[in-house]
Amino acid sequence: MKSATAIKALLGLITSLVVALGGCAAGPNYHTPKPDTPPAFVASASANAAASATATATTTAPDLATWWHALNDPELDSLVERAIKSNPDLEIALTRLQQARNYEAVVLGHALPDVDASGAAAKGTGNDLTKGRADQGLRSADNSNGLQHINTIAGFDAVWELDLFGKYRRAFEAARYDAQAAAAARSAVITSLIADVVHAYIDLRGLQINAGILRSASTVLRESLRIVNIRYERGITNELDVQLATRELDTLEAQIAPVDAEVNASEYTLAVLLGEYPESVVHELSTPTLIPSMPAPVAPGAPLDLLKRRPDVQQAERELASATARIGVATANLFPQVALIGSIGSQSQALGTVPGIAKHIWSFGPGAVWPLLDFGALDAQVNIAHLEAHASLMTYRKTILSAVQQVDAALDGYTAQQDRLKNLGDAMIAAQRAVDLANARYNRGLTDFLNVVDAERQFYDLQEQYAAAQVTQGEQFVQLYKSLGGGWQGYQNVPAIRRPQPAIIAAFRRTLSSSAP
């Protein structure tokens, strides 16, 4: 009597909770945090000043979505498009996105009724030989009246766990946010891939120019050595000048082979980014061309705009949303699990047992399970979910901080390289004039050959510095647009996932597809 009273009290408590909390989703509702970003980039003032100083009537800022087109290099445009089509990292990112989208269907399926077919047949000494063989839901409808032995049973049973406390709603939220995070991660891969291709292309052209400078200098120094040898043979100069010219030539030519190896390595890097073997692309990249001209500095906008443009910021925010939804999943596990359970089928006394009798059986009704004493395990899971959400929040804030820092650094670096190129250009003009003057004075016997060597060395060094500065400026240009979140906007079309089918249909379909030739 007392046990019956306790059971009624427990059922009453469960019913009260269902009525009070039914329709509410456990856990906090997610709201996008409002970051305290600065009103403007600290480096934007100098960038705007530089842009005003270099702007012309035809100057236009590059389109953020296709910023590499501003370099006006058809070969580069082709390389970017081929990388988007064939790069393995991008294919991996798409695969992970499709996995996340499929997982949404998994979570949705768990929230809907589950219907199974079950059956059993046996002979033996027991009165009910279907125990332990058929599904427990179907076995709950057992009716042994008039039967000496139950030998066979077959039927269907269904279970629908009611989402009274929002466990599945929160789980579906988390799955949806995870899919959105995976989409943002794919966009981040696109952004990085385009930047890597342009970066590698600029490096390649810079190394090819450097190799050309060395070969041109080698030709000039070889001619200088020939002239010095003639002057030495005629007694106009001494052996020291011959040795100085020889040393200068050999020192410079020692740099050519390593630079050629770096050129080859850059071509191999581009090939991998394109998802191809080096042998497939080396022939089209081997012809040297100039480093693309860089446009004027771009106006970066406000730091708050990065939240909409940067895919890594979007990914961090969606991961925060998912972690917040999982707090609700963990919290819902603290409350009763209520399900509607039904079954229908047939059981019989057969398999040689006489008389042969068959009966229809069925059952339907609710069931509930409530974890009462777990020594804090479920509550600890809620704490863990809260901590994971807090870690995601800190990651989101850190991502925004890094994004703003990267834009400021790229703006400063890009502007600085423009100033450096202007100064190096002026220095190269002066260095060329110094070489001409040194050679003229040496030919007239007014100075020794050391001055000629020094003038030529400084001129070639400035040529290399100028080429390196062009490469660095290009790299800063790439980093600037990567940090601004440009490039992924035009590549958002992804193939649709195949609609998942019920297990029985999928089993036949996959069996037929695996057996097809």
Q: Helical proportion?
A: 55-70%
Question: How many DSSP helices?
Answer: 14
Query: Terminal Cα separation, in Å?
Result: 68 Å
Strand content: 5-15%
The main β sheet shows up as: 4 strands, antiparallel
Q: Whole-number radius of gyration? A: 38 Å
Element-by-element helix/strand order: HHHHEHEHHHHHHEEHHH
**Class from secondary-structure proportions:** alpha+beta
For the largest beta sheet, what order do the strands appear in spatially? 1-2-3-4
Summed over residues and divided by their number, the pLDDT gives a mean of: 85
How does the overall form come out from the CA principal axes?
elongated
Number of strands: 4
Unreliable spans: 55-59
Essential attributes:
517 residues; 4 strands; single chain; four-stranded antiparallel sheet
Q: What can be said about this structure in brief?
A:
With 517 residues, the chain is of the alpha+beta class. 62% of the residues lie in helices and 9% in strands. It has a four-stranded antiparallel sheet.
Task: Characterize the structure shown.
With 517 residues, the protein is an alpha+beta fold. 62% of the residues lie in helices and 9% in strands. The protein contains 14 helices and four strands. The protein has a four-stranded antiparallel beta sheet with strand order 1-2-3-4. Strand 3 and strand 4 (357-369) form a beta hairpin. Helix 6 (167-233) runs antiparallel to helix 13 and helix 11 runs antiparallel to helix 12 (377-443). It starts with a helix and ends with a helix. 35% of the residues are buried. Residues 55-59 have low confidence and may be disordered.
